[in-house]
Design a protein that fits this description.
The structure is a homodimer of 308-residue chains.
Chain A: H1 4-15, E1 29-31, E2 35-43, H2 59-75, E3 79-91, H3 96-113, E4 117-125, E5 129-138, E6 153-157, H4 162-172, H5 179-184, H6 190-196, E7 202-205, H7 210-221, E8 224-228, H8 238-244, H9 249-255, E9 262-266, E10 275-282, E11 286-290
Parallel strand pairs in A: 3-4, 8-11
Antiparallel strand pairs in A: 1-2, 2-5, 3-5, 6-9, 6-10, 7-9, 8-10
């Protein structure tokens, strides 16, 4: 079976390596001089459902979330947000209110994070899609995926697993679950990225899940990783709340995705402000996760392929 | 009924006017310093149909066309192509070959026009969509929509109406019709735009149709226009070919759309290389089209709203 990784590799071969440096395969592309670009799509029935509207979510929140998810790719490269383009499709017959509410949500984030919407596109389709192009200013140090070295420490900002709980709660109509806000309101970690950019070796944002995204870093850097499961920061009472929603608490943490926290790889001994140390980079390939007893977990079936 | 124009005006109000100058409502946005950005979506069953594959078109050609249509927005601002981002959605179960053929078509245009694909996004959806962000370098003179003045001459590059014939031929399965190539292979007018940028007052590319797009220029410039129908350049034998496909020959020229030629407004007396003079800007609002007898045509029902 072809996975997302193979598809991206094949696309990279078709498109060729851009002369400008970073390109397909990193979080965002660098367009000389100092401009970073990325694009991200939020698709009805893939990333969100219409049935959630009025039952835990609103179009405004879904618009904001689409913008935040896209902007997170800039944070992952330690770039500062500068502008957005927003391409929206709506089904024929969709009330205009849907469009305006999506736009209001996007505009709120644009104002909050200093990334005005400077253009866009409207088209009819069969579903609601919000495709956001983000433009950022690269700092002196661009964080890439391919700089991790054996012996480096692995850190993660915030907590993981909350978005998976929020998503499950929305799907179940359990609208009292506070993790819904965690899912709808990810916060790109611009401050944390800027704070560590000079010392960090690599970074990525957690969109596909910790194992998948750390796997991208390890693949690009030709290294492996070892994580301490008990060190991975999570929301209060995570395990019980996950079980109430029918989720495997461990899978929500390791493979849940969409938390948009940053995984940061930095030399051992450095301290990453606003983040928690969860493991180390190894020369041996592959990712091992140790439980509190020191045993290596079996991770089969925890993966997540956005493009599945 | 709310049209695209009102929706864009409302979105502009929601998003606010960007500090960088041009924004929503022009062909592309200017991101200081000298960088122009635009985004355009090609959507299955709106802009193309799966049924055409192998019957006059290929995924490769549809990928190329999506890139060309997006790049045309840069030509309309007299910007030079620099790079693209390509966000693609495919239905679950779609063969990977569709993705690679689309990418090959996009990559061919990227190579031909010097706009490498430096990033992108893949997601599952219910239909095929290709959303292309284009990045261009603005020249010394950026062509905008709002600079037309009463007394200016109106020019158009190439010919109009061919894309409408090609679209109708694809829909009818009339795959011998040569206009199919005209539809599948629009050619952004970078050379013509660069050639006239220093003297022209305004420009737009014909995506929605001559009347609609000239209407955008007139609206933004607070002027009107008068066109000579017989002066509008068309393909050889246009009228008979249009009728064979069941099209109103006049509507194909005036409202057909998707030719991606440039409408250029320049001071009377200037000569626009590679273009034909088709009329003049008037102080009186509205667009009048005169037939060869000098009578003003009734234009009701010729309009085209992409977002209908």
């Amino acid at each position: 079976m072809t996975g997302e990784h193979e598809r991206i590799a094949r696309l990279r071969a078709i498109y060729g390596a851009p002369a400008t440096g970073l390109g397909i395969g990193d979080d965002a592309a660098v367009l000389a001089p100092g401009i970073v670009l990325s694009v991200d799509a939020a698709i009805e029935d893939v990333h969100f459902r219409r049935a959630w509207i009025g039952r835990g979510a609103s179009w405004r929140e879904l618009g904001a979330r689409a913008a935040l998810a896209a902007l997170s790719d800039l944070a992952a490269m330690a770039a500062a947000p500068r502008a957005m383009l927003s391409a929206i499709t709506l089904p024929r017959g969709e009330p205009d209110a849907t469009l305006y509410e999506l736009a209001e949500g996007i505009a709120a984030i644009a104002g909050e994070l200093g990334a005005p919407v400077i253009g866009g596109n409207l088209a009819r389709g069969t579903i609601v899609t919000i495709t956001t192009t983000v433009i950022g200013a690269a700092g002196a140090h661009v964080l890439r995926r391919d700089g991790a070295r054996a012996g480096d420490a692995i850190w993660v900002t915030g907590t993981l697993g909350g978005a998976a709980l929020g998503l499950a709660a929305l799907e179940a109509g359990a609208i009292a679950e506070p993790a819904i806000a965690r899912f709808l309101r990810p916060m790109p970690r611009f401050g944390e990225a800027a704070g560590c950019a000079a010392m960090a070796h690599a970074a990525i944002d957690v969109s596909d899940g910790l194992l998948a995204d750390l796997g991208h870093v390890c693949g690009a850097s030709a290294v492996g990783a070892e994580l301490e499961e008990s060190a991975i920061p999570r929301e209060p009472d995570h395990d019980a709340r996950a079980r109430r929603l029918g989720l495997d608490p461990r899978a929500a943490i390791l493979a849940g995705g969409e938390d948009y926290e940053l995984v940061i790889v930095a030399p051992e001994g450095a301290t990453i402000t606003g983040a928690t140390r969860i493991g180390a980079i190894t020369a041996a390939r592959g990712i091992a996760v140790r439980d509190p007893s020191g045993a290596v977990l079996a991770l089969d079936g925890l993966g997540f392929d956005h493009f599945g």
